[in-house]
Amino acid sequence: MALDKIGIAKRISKELEDGFYVNLGIGIPTLVANYVPEDIEVEFQSENGILGMGNYPFEGEEDADLINAGKQTITAKPGAVFFDSAASFAMIRGKHVHLTVLGAMEVAQNGDIANWKIPGKMVKGMGGAMDLVGSAENIIVAMMHTNKKGDSKLLESCTLPLTGVGCVTKIVTNLAVLEVRNGQFHLLERAPGVTVDEIKAATAGELVVEGDIPEMKL
């Protein structure tokens, strides 16, 4: 059974480590903040100027002035700090963020990512994505394995305008966990009930499968 968006976020939360500073992109990545393991401390950073984001607010407790870079209402943990965009991007460009989690429209087998524009469609702009992919050394992509038409989003090369080149390290989809290595997708885990053959069929790029592939543990 393929994962839903919450399942993807839960799996990515297992990549968090104690003491990490983490930037979460718009979409599925924002859900990761709700599933931090209880035995670790993680600080979530947003490029609009906050370090110390908490979970999503409960209905009726939203503060319209407290938002993330995607303009979603958030909460702030005790001790959270607020600062201007210049300080926020200095933090990103200075490589002080340990992990960046982004959504994507396409990822290529060499680690290229396209996540900001579909030609002919209205977009608000790239936002902080260009700085994040240009500075981060540990980028995990959270995405669906295929688009609404059923076409693979894991490709030999991206067809959409690139956000970053050769920067993605790992991908967590509704079907699998994959690592980008040596210009190939390496299959690490499969979603519960999903077969290796199903993952192969949904992956347009070169996929390396070595040995028995375990199911994800959520």
Describe the SSE topology.
Blueprint: H1 5-13, E1 21-24, E2 43-46, E3 50-53, E4 76-82, H2 85-93, E5 99-103, E6 106-108, E7 113-114, H3 129-135, E8 139-142, E9 154-155, E10 170-172, E11 176-181, E12 184-190, H4 196-201, E13 207-208
Parallel strand pairs: 1-2, 1-5, 5-8, 6-9, 8-10, 12-13
Antiparallel strand pairs: 2-3, 3-4, 6-7, 10-11, 11-12
Overall description:
The chain is an alpha/beta fold and 218 residues long. It has one domain: Glutaconate Coenzyme A-transferase. The chain is 14% helix and 24% strand. The protein contains four helices and 13 strands. The strands form two sheets. It has a ten-stranded mixed sheet with strand order 4-3-2-1-5-8-10-11-12-13. A hairpin with a 4-residue loop joins β6 and β7. The longest helix is centred in the N-terminal third of the chain and has 9 residues. The protein is globular and about 45 Å long. The two termini are 13 Å apart. The model has no long low-confidence stretch (mean pLDDT 93).
